[in-house]
C-alpha cells in the first residue's frame, strides 16, 4: 500500500494529488514546444503543432509545417502550411482544428489534415488584423474570440452557426490587455480582460469594471487568468505573486495563495474533479510546476523539459517531448482504500481477497470485521468505484477481484454496477492503447458517452475497434454497427485509387441489407467526391426509390431518375421528375422522352389537363392523336370562348379533327352542335330570352313554354327529332303550363305515337283528375286498367280486368282495393277468380 501511494502528494489535510504517466511519447519533434503553436483537444484528444510559425529570426522562405498527433504521439497528419500567418490554434468540440489567421480568416481542418471549410471574422478584423485569439467551448458549441489591432473584441459563440458579435469598446484602452479570457455565464459569452490593476467584463451591451472580492492589496497588474473546465471558477495571477481563486461571476472568493514568484507563468489551468469540494490551480513556469489550492502549502514538481498543460474535466494532462502525464486529485474511493493505515471497508476487503489468494486465515478475520460493522455492501461498492479510477489494468483487476470476492458473501447485491464497470474498463483500456491514443478517464468517459466515443473512433478511421465495442456492449444495430459501417462506406468511396466496380462491390458485400444503412447517403458522398458512376452503382442497392430519385436528379441523370420513379409506382415521385425534366430539357426532347414512357406520358397529360392546356394540345399534335385533339377543342370551346363565333370556330376545328380520326359520329354530332348554336343565337336575337348552351330538348321545351309551337316543330324537323320524343316534350311542356285546352287540342291533332297513358300520368302528376279522366277513356285495352287505377276508378278497372280475364290485372286491382270502400269490388274480383278456376 505504501509503495502504491508513493506518488501521492497531499494538498492540505483533505486532498491528495497524484501524477502518473499516460504514454512515453515517441514523436520526432524537430523543435521545442516553446517554438511551436500548440493546441490539444480535451477528453484525451489529438495534439496539433504548427512548427516554425512566423518569427523574425526564421527565414521567410521556410514554410511552416502543421503536424497532428494522437495523445500518444502517433502521427495522424502532416501538411505544409500554404496560407497566411496563424495567430492561434484550437480544437472544436467535434475535434476539428480551427486555425485563426492574422487576417481574421479561420481555416477548419479535420483530424487527418483534410481541409473542411473556412470563414471570416468580419471586415473590421480584416482591416485591423488579429493580435490574439481564444477558442472556447459553450453548451451551444465551440466559439472563437478575437482581439484586433484596434484593441477591440469580436466573438462568435458557435462556429457551426456563425453570428459575429462586436463587443463594446474598453474606455482608455491604448494597448493590448495584459491577459484576457472568454467566459460563459447564463448561456451568454463574455470577455474578461485585465488593464493594469483593473478588470473589465464585456457583454453584448456594455463594458463593466469588476473587482474580485478579497483581493490582496498592492496589485498593479494581472499577469495571467484561467477559467475552469466548466466555466464556473476563475483564477487570477497578480504581479505580486498572489493567485486569487473564486467564482467566474467574481462575486465570491474561494481562496488566495502567495506563491512568492512574480514572474508571469507560461500557463495556468484549473485542476479539479466533478463533485469534489477541493479546488486547485496548476501553474507552470519554464522548469517548475506548482499545484495550489485552499491550503498554506503547495505541491511542486520539477519540469525537465518544455511542457504543455491541457485542462480536463477531472484533472490536467501534461505532455512534453518525451512523456505524457496526467495530474489529478485522488478520488475519494481510491483514497479510502489505499491511504496508509486505512480501515475503510474497501481497504479491508482488498486485504481479505489478497489473503484468500495466499490461503491465509486472515481473510476470514478481515471479512468478519467488515460483516460485523455491516459494511460489506459499502466495501464492494468502494472497490468497484476505485477500479474505475485506476489507470493500470493490474490494479483494476485486483480491485474487481476484491469486489467479486465480497459479492460472494452478499445475498442480494445487484450485479449491474459490477458488470457495467467491467465493460467500461474493457472499453477504456482498449482506447487507451498506445496505437489508439485516447487516454480517457472513467469520469471523462461517462461525461462523453459511448456514442461520442464511437464517433471519435470513426473520425480516426478505427472502424474495426468501433465495431468490436458495439458488438461487445450489444448496442442496437442502428446506433452501433450499422452507423459505423455507413461511415466506413463513406470513407471507402473517397479512395480514388480503387475502381468504381470494386468499391461498390466491397461496400455491398460488407453492408448487404444491414438495417439503418442508407445507400443513398453513401452515394451522395461518392458524388460529392466527384465519382458519379460509383454513386449510380451504389444507388442500385438502395431499395427506396424515394431516396434514389432526388440524388439522380442532382447528378443530372434525369432519364434514369424517371425510370426509377416509374418502377416505384409512386405518382408523386414521377411528377417530381417530370417537372424537373421539363425545366431541364427543351420542349422537343422533353416530349420525345415522354413518348418512350407511356405511364409518364399519361400522368403528364393528367397534369396538363388541369394546369397547362396548351401543352396538352401540343402533345396531341405531336402524337397525331386527332381523337383526343377533337375532344380538347370541344372542351376549349366551352371553357375559354365567350363569343359565339369563337366557339363555333373551335367546334369546327374539333369536327375536322374527328374526321381525320375517322370518327364520323363525333364529327356529325359536332356539326349538329354548331348548327344548334347558330340557331340558338338567332332565336335569342328574334325572340329574346336565354337559349344559348341549352340542349336540343331543352331548346324545344323552352320554345313550347314560350308559346312558339311552330318554331318548336320546325326545330324538331330540322334536327330530326322522332315523333315520340317530340310528343313527350310537348306533353310535358303544356302540362307544366297547365294549358289543358291546348293539351286537348294537341291530343286530337292526330293519333298519339306514345298512346294516351302518358297523358293520364302527366295530368295526375299535376293533380288534375278531371283532365286525366278525359284521356283514360282513350287509353288502349292493354293499358286501360292501369289508367283507370291512376284516376281512382277502381270499380270500372275491376270490370275491365274481369272482362279481360287477366290474372295480373286482377291482382293489380285487388292491391288497390281498401277494406271499407271497395269491399264489394274485392268480392266481385274473388268470385270472378273462383269461376275462372272452375272452368
Please characterize this protein's 3D structure.
The chain has 33 helices and 29 strands. With 839 residues, it is α+β, with helices and mostly antiparallel strands. Among the domains are: 1-19 and 214-330, Lipocalin (Beta Barrel), CATH 2.40.128; 339-411; 481-543, no CATH class; 780-838, no CATH class. A five-stranded antiparallel sheet has the order 1-2-29-28-27, with no helix packed on it. A hairpin with an 8-residue loop joins strand 23 and strand 24 (280-284). It is elongated and about 140 Å long. The model has no long low-confidence stretch (mean pLDDT 84). Keywords: Coiled coil, Endosome, Lysosome, Membrane, Protein transport, Transport. It is found in: Late endosome membrane; Lysosome membrane. Residues 517-835 form the Vps16 C-terminal domain. One of its GO terms (cellular component) is late endosome membrane.
Short characterization:
The protein has 839 residues and is α+β, with helices and mostly antiparallel strands. It is 46% helix and 20% strand.
Amino acid at each position: 500500500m505504501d509503495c502504491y501511494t508513493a506518488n501521492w502528494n497531499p494538498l492540505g489535510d483533505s486532498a491528495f494529488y497524484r501524477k502518473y504517466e499516460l504514454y512515453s511519447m515517441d514523436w520526432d519533434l524537430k523543435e521545442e514546444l516553446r517554438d511551436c503553436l500548440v493546441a490539444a483537444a480535451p477528453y484525451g484528444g489529438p495534439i496539433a503543432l504548427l512548427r516554425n510559425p512566423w518569427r523574425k529570426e526564421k527565414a521567410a522562405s521556410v514554410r511552416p509545417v502543421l503536424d497532428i498527433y494522437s495523445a500518444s504521439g502517433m502521427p495522424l497528419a502532416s501538411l505544409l502550411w500554404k496560407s497566411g500567418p496563424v495567430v492561434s490554434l484550437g480544437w472544436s468540440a467535434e475535434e476539428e482544428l480551427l486555425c485563426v489567421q492574422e487576417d481574421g480568416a479561420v481555416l477548419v481542418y479535420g483530424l487527418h489534415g483534410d481541409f473542411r471549410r473556412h470563414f471570416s471574422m468580419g471586415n473590421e478584423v480584416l482591416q485591423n488584423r488579429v493580435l490574439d485569439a481564444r477558442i472556447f467551448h459553450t453548451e451551444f458549441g465551440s466559439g472563437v474570440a478575437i482581439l484586433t489591432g484596434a484593441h477591440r473584441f469580436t466573438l462568435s459563440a458557435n462556429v457551426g452557426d456563425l453570428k459575429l458579435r462586436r463587443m463594446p469598446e474598453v474606455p482608455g484602452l491604448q494597448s493590448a490587455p495584459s491577459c484576457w479570457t472568454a467566459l460563459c455565464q447564463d448561456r451568454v459569452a463574455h470577455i474578461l480582460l485585465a488593464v493594469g490593476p483593473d478588470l473589465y467584463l464585456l457583454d453584448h451591451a456594455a463594458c463593466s469594471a469588476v473587482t474580485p472580492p478579497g483581493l490582496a492589496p498592492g496589485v498593479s497588474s494581472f499577469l495571467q487568468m484561467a477559467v475552469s473546465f466548466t466555466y464556473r471558477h476563475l483564477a487570477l495571477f497578480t504581479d505580486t505573486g498572489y493567485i486569487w481563486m473564486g467564482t467566474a461571476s467574481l462575486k465570491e472568493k474561494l481562496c488566495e495563495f502567495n506563491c512568492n514568484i512574480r514572474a508571469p507563468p507560461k500557463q495556468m489551468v484549473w485542476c479539479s474533479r466533478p463533485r469534489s469540494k477541493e479546488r486547485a490551480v496548476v501553474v507552470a513556469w519554464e522548469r517548475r510546476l506548482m499545484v495550489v489550492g485552499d491550503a498554506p502549502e503547495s505541491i511542486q514538481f520539477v519540469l525537465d523539459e518544455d511542457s504543455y498543460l491541457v485542462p480536463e474535466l477531472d484533472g490536467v494532462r501534461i505532455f512534453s517531448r518525451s512523456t505524457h502525464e496526467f495530474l489529478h486529485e485522488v478520488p475519494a474511493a481510491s483514497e479510502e482504500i489505499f491511504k496508509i493505515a486505512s480501515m475503510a471497508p474497501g481497504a479491508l476487503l482488498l486485504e481479505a481477497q489478497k489473503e484468500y489468494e495466499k490461503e491465509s486465515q486472515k481473510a476470514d478475520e478481515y471479512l468478519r470485521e467488515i460483516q460485523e460493522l455491516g459494511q460489506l455492501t459499502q466495501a464492494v461498492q468502494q472497490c468497484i468505484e476505485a477500479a474505475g479510477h485506476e489507470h493500470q489494468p493490474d490494479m483494476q483487476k485486483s480491485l474487481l477481484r476484491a469486489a467479486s470476492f465480497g459479492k460472494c458473501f452478499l445475498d442480494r447485491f445487484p450485479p449491474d454496477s459490477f458488470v457495467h464497470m467491467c465493460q467500461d474498463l474493457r472499453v477504456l483500456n482498449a482506447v487507451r492503447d498506445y496505437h489508439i491514443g485516447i487516454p480517457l478517464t472513467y469520469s471523462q468517459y461517462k461525461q462523453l458517452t459511448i456514442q461520442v466515443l464511437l464517433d471519435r473512433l470513426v473520425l480516426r478511421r478505427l472502424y474495426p475497434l468501433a465495431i468490436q465495442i458495439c458488438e461487445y456492449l450489444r448496442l442496437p444495430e442502428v446506433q452501433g454497427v450499422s452507423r459505423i459501417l455507413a461511415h466506413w462506406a463513406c470513407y471507402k468511396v473517397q479512395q480514388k485509387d480503387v475502381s468504381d466496380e470494386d468499391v461498390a462491390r466491397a461496400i455491398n458485400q460488407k453492408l448487404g441489407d444491414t438495417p439503418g444503412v442508407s445507400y443513398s447517403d453513401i452515394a451522395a458522398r461518392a458524388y460529392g467526391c466527384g465519382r458519379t458512376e460509383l454513386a449510380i452503382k451504389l444507388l442500385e442497392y438502395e431499395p427506396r426509390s424515394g431516396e434514389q430519385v432526388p440524388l439522380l436528379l442532382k447528378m443530372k441523370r434525369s432519364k434514369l431518375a424517371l425510370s426509377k420513379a416509374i418502377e416505384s409506382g409512386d405518382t408523386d415521385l414521377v411528377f417530381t421528375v417530370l417537372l424537373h425534366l421539363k425545366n431541364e430539357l427543351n420542349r422537343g426532347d422533353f416530349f420525345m422522352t415522354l413518348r418512350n414512357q407511356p405511364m409518364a406520358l399519361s400522368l403528364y397529360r393528367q397534369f396538363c389537363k388541369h394546369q397547362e392546356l396548351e401543352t396538352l394540345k401540343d402533345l396531341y399534335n405531336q402524337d397525331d392523336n386527332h381523337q383526343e385533339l377533337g375532344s380538347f377543342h370541344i372542351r376549349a370551346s366551352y371553357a375559354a370562348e365567350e363569343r359565339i363565333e369563337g366557339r363555333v370556330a373551335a367546334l369546327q376545328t374539333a369536327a375536322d379533327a374527328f374526321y381525320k380520326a375517322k370518327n364520323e359520329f363525333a364529327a356529325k354530332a359536332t356539326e349538329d352542335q354548331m348548327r344548334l348554336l347558330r340557331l340558338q343565337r338567332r332565336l335569342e336575337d328574334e325572340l329574346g330570352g336565354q337559349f344559348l348552351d341549352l340542349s336540343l330538348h331543352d331548346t324545344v321545351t323552352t320554345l313550347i313554354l314560350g308559346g312558339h309551337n311552330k318554331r318548336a316543330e320546325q326545330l324538331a324537323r330540322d334536327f330530326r327529332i322522332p315523333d315520340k320524343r317530340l310528343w313527350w316534350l310537348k306533353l310535358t311542356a303544356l302540362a307544366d303550363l297547365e294549358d289543358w285546352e291546348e293539351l286537348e287540342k294537341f291530343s286530337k291533332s292526330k293519333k298519339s305515337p306514345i298512346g294516351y297513358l302518358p297523358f293520364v300520368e302527366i295530368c295526375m302528376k299535376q293533380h288534375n283528375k278531371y283532365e286525366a279522366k278525359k284521356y283514360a277513356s282513350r287509353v288502349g285495352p292493354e293499358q286501360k286498367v292501369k289508367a283507370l287505377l291512376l284516376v281512382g276508378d277502381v270499380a270500372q278497372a275491376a270490370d275491365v280486368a274481369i272482362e279481360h280475364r287477366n290474372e295480373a290485372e286482377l291482382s293489380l286491382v285487388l292491391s288497390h282495393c281498401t277494406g271499407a270502400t271497395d269491399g264489394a269490388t274485392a268480392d266481385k274480383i274473388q268470385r270472378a277468380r273462383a269461376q275462372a278456376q272452375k272452368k
